[in-house]
Amino acid sequence: MKKVLFLIVVILINNVQVFALSAQSSVLMDLSSRRVLMENNAHLRRGMASTTKIMTAIIALEYGNLDDVVTVSYKASTVEGSSMWLKSGEKISLRSLLYGLMLNSGNDAATAIAEHIGGSIEGFAEMMNKKAKELGLKDTSFTNPHGLDDENHYTTAYELGKITCYAMENEIFCDIVNTKRKTIEGLENGINRTLTNHNKMLTLYDNADGVKTGFTKKCGRCLVSSATKDDLKLVAVTLNAPDDWNDHKTMLNFGFDNYIKFTGLKQNSYIKSLSVSSGMSDKVSCYAKNELSCAVKNTDKTEVKYSIPDTLKAPVIIGQKLGTAELYVNGKLTDSTDVVAGYGINKTSSNSFFDVFYYLSMELLSKFITIV
User: Which of 47, 51, 25, 49 is nearest to 38 (CA)?
Assistant: First the structure.
């Protein structure tokens, strides 16, 4: 019996990665597929402090104009907590406010953005919650744009990771959170400011490229970081982590040491030609709308499955969804993309010489280059 127990212990030691993280909740995710690579209490609701501002930035980028001129209210200039030192009545661009939001973690910038985009703190919070629902989040609730404590303001490490993965698909967001230092010029009665990013991971970790810090006494230290190595992009989240910098180094190192990026399909890559009836051409080429990829271990088994009809009926519109392609890792669905038409095909009722020449040419070209 003792020998059997000893063997079990050896197997566990050899196959289980043990971590000593300070975080009460944590998750490490592959940005491309949202695959969870490691987690602890990742679905437990907690306060998120200033990591809230990741969603604030998303709403500002999607609903605002970067060149908008914002007049700072008295309320915004006097909000408590971290600040970029806005003055009441000052005029400043939305672009500059976003740098103050994400680098200096300015609660004043968050309030000014909320009032400008949503009309009020409450109106902006509604927009944040609407976006959360669009992202499929069920354990996230926003009451403000800055993250000051509120019992109805919460998320989970997992859902904050999903919010961040979504945000990091926006190039402007990525540029802002990867900026270590930024000088912004005041407008009219404004002043010039030099902002320094509070996210020390940008200097502590070679491959880091974002994203946001946070702290309140109630929430503790919160941190979201991202890093890219060999085309593999990872997002790490910790909530209530006294030693968050070292937690994130450990998590990211684990990810890069144990996973590589596997690409099942590249964006716009040719998949196959489908038969078309009643059309100017009898075939149409289809392509992957987006990249199909995932972080995998060398021992993982990968498979791409297609759901595409054998035949179509004209008309076919360029970019029309024809089916789906799905990436499975060890039998579990991890990523998917639409399969779309590379060009359009009219019905045979159109018989102009130009139409015939065009569609036959597109079919020929599709065998050599991507048309999408």
Answer: 25
Q: Which of 50, 73, 96, 226 is catalytic?
A: 50
CATH number at 21-258: 3.40.710.10
Structure tokens given for 232: 């593999």
Note the pTM of the prediction, 2 decimals. Answer: 0.86
What class, spelled out in words, does domain 264-365 have in CATH? mainly beta
The C-alpha atoms of residue 214 and residue 225 are separated, in whole angstroms, by 11
Percent of the chain, pLDDT > 70?
Answer: 88
At 232, give phi and psi (nearest 5°): -100, 125
| Residue 50 a catalytic site member | yes
Determine whether 233 is an active site residue. Answer: no
- pLDDT tens-digit map of 244-300: 999 999 999 999 999 999 999 999 999 999 999 988 888 899 999 999 999 999 999
Q: Where are the domains of the chain?
A: 21-258, 264-365
Domains 21-258 and 264-365 share a fold: no
83 catalytically annotated: no
Which range among 11-20, 174-183, 354-363 shows the weakest confidence by mean pLDDT? 11-20
DSSP 347: B
Whether 367 shows a pLDDT value over 80: the answer reads: no
The chain-wide mean pLDDT, for the chain, equals: 90
In this structure, how many other beta carbons lie within 10 angstroms of the beta carbon of residue 46?
20
Q: Hey, what's the torsion of the CAs at 329, 253, 266, 328, to 10 degrees?
A: 10
Q: Which of these is catalytic: 25, 32, 73, 105? A: 105
Residue with tokens 């006294």: 242
Summarised one tens digit per residue, pLDDT across range 347-361 is 876 545 555 565 556
Instruction: List, in order, residues 6 or more apart from 78 with CB less than 8 Å away.
Output: 88
Block residue for tokens 């959360």: 132
The pLDDT of residue 7 is 36
Q: Exactly one of 53, 162, 249, 261 is catalytic; which is it?
A: 53
